[in-house]
Amino acid sequence: STTPLTLLGLGGMGTALARAWLAAGHPLTVWNRTAAKAEPLAAEGARVAASAAEAVAAAGLVVVCLLDDASVGEALAPAELTGKDIVNLTTGTPAQARERAHWARRRGARFLDGGIMAVPPMIGTPQAGGYIFYSGDHALFEQHRETLAIPAGTRYVGTDAGHAALHDVALLSAMTGMFAGITHAFALMRPEREVKPTEFAGMVTEWLRAMAAMTEAMAWQLESGDYTEGVTSNLAMMSAGNATLEATAEEQGVKGELLAPFMASMRERVALGHGDEGLAGLVDGLRGGSPQR
Ligand code: NDP
User: Fold this and answer.
1) Which residue, judged by its Cα, is nearest atom 38 of ligand 1?
2) Which part of the chain is the NADPH-dependent reductive aminase-like C-terminal domain (predicted)?
3) pLDDT value of position 292
4) Is 134 helix (H, G, I), strand (E, B) or coil?
């Protein structure tokens, strides 16, 4: 169960992955473009390869965690990939993952793409709740399941190599919108010296946790196709309420730019006569389509 493997890329994430496999006793060969980053890992038992091609030659299982898809193509260009199992944990778009899968197969390799839902301190710490989405070659995933489960939990989401990246980016997108709201909220409270940010943070976290339940309500509406079903806060009401959010931002001297596009979507949907819908109604609007009912 201690499969030897190769890891290309020793940035913040790659280094965390390397440490997790070394700690679990896996023979590990590493390579990084800037060789100095491999030195601490050599001291911890990793074999350091002089080139990416040499690193790839050292093991059947090759994990890649580089900056972006272009760096993956560049690093693997001179390597012999025939018979290799490539697991690409580099963040990219779904189309890049599918393209990379075809590219790897043409070169005689099996390919699995991954999207890491964790930050480096969560790697090798199962109780931190981090995990990695995987998609692509199912036989590869099954064969290396135990090895892949060492750094973080595994969630296989299908044979389409682009599916892990799609899940990854969808969750990152949800997070981005959430951070926009949090940033705006801190800015509103900024001049209120008597409310410490650390105190306000607790209120934000508690509120967002309660409101996250809306996600399930939206999902039920999307599945039923009836976006008015069980709606307690409809778009007409929320859109009218947005005027208060905008006026308060102005009073507090805060730019409305982070929230404005979302509010515009709501206004547009109401103007089209869908004010009785919940937030689910915005989903079709965003795709430029009419509601599917
Ligand atoms: P870093 O910026 O710390 O490291 C980037 C790595 O890519 C380095 O090893 C760098 O080598 C290498 N690299 C960049 N360009 C090239 C190239 N043209 N050829 C060869 N190697 C190259 O990034 P992370 O380690 O944090 O992230 C790696 C991947 O993991 C990214 O795709 C990221 O999105 C993903 N990820 C990261 C998370 C995080 O919180 N850090 C969370 C989830 C996913 P060099 O040292 O020589 O510059």
Assistant:
1) 119
2) 160-287
3) 46
4) strand
Question: What is the DSSP track for 53-98?
Answer: HHHHHT-SEEEE--SSHHHHHHHHTTS--TT-EEEE-S---HHHHH
Atom of ligand 1 nearest to the CA of 34: 47
pTM (2 decimals)? 0.93
CATH of region 166-286: 1.10.1040.10
Helix (H, G, I), strand (E, B) or coil at 108: coil
Residues of the chain with CATH 3.40.50.720: 5-159
% of the chain beyond a pLDDT of 70: 98
Q: Which of 144, 159, 127 is nearest to 86 (CA)?
A: 144
Looking at the chain, the domain(s) classified CATH 1.10.1040.10 span 166-286
Ligand 1 centroid – CA 90 distance (Å): 8
Architecture category of domain 5-159 in CATH:
3-Layer(aba) Sandwich (3.40)
How is the chain split among helix, strand and coil, in percent rounded to 5? 55, 10, 35
Is residue 90 in contact with ligand 1, taking CB distance under 6 Å? yes
